[in-house]
Design a protein that fits this description.
Family: Belongs to the universal stress protein A family.
Shape: elongated
Order of helices and strands: EHEHHEEHEEHHEHEHEEE
Number of helices: 8
Oligomer: single chain
Helix content: 25-40%
Strand content: 15-25%
Number of domains: 2
Protein name: Universal stress protein
CATH class of the largest domain: Alpha Beta
Domain UspA: 198-257
Amino acid sequence: MSYKDILVFLDAGRSTATRLDLAVSLCQRFDARLVGVDVSTPDAFAGEFADVARGLESMFETKIKESSIRGEYRVAETRTSSWKDFYAHYADLVVATERDETSDDLVAKGIPDDIVMSAGVPVLILPSIWGPGTIGESVVVAWNSSRESTRALHDALPILKQATRVTIFEFAPFSDHVDSAPGLVQAHLKEHGVESEIFTWPDVKDVSPIDALFSCLDRQQADLIVAGAFGHPRLIEAIFGSASEDLLHNPSIPVLISH
């Protein structure tokens, strides 16, 4: 498996240029087509960001031409719900940015939270103040032996295969007298040509799973987290169980998340 069709959301917010640059670099890395989907709201064309909103297609086409990649610009239906679901069903990977107060009125509702839950493909979420920076050199897989983390692991394989360092993190991992969960994941990744390290943390009650994960991220100098989204309605509740709100408080680490 590889990413051959990558979708990036475009809007008049300040994070779009960095997000587009990252999506272009991913297309160059995986020889993929880039679909830019304009998710601007009507408000975006009525205020101080109007010129930016009107120039999104030109910005996208210029970047495609400069980068010599295949690309297509589309405009999402933002006034009503649509079976197109912002075109996310027709991609291998979606690139988005976490919502923030400065651009909330400029971006269609449901992005990225609802897309994570409905797209059926992995969504790469960038922190609102991220970048530019590298992604996928040192990757931490947040593992918890669930369907969701299994899906995320396999959705991330194209990136994991190219990473220089992959770490399997698990808080209070499952084990018995025969196997341990992180060890089984490590053996599985090896069959895909991915060498990995294991970082576990016992449940000693005085450290939360999120704090333990951040310790792992710092020690491994991670630039990407891979995690599964659970069935909660909001993204901030979805990444790492009930403690996931804390995860997106980290302003520097992108998350590749699958549901």
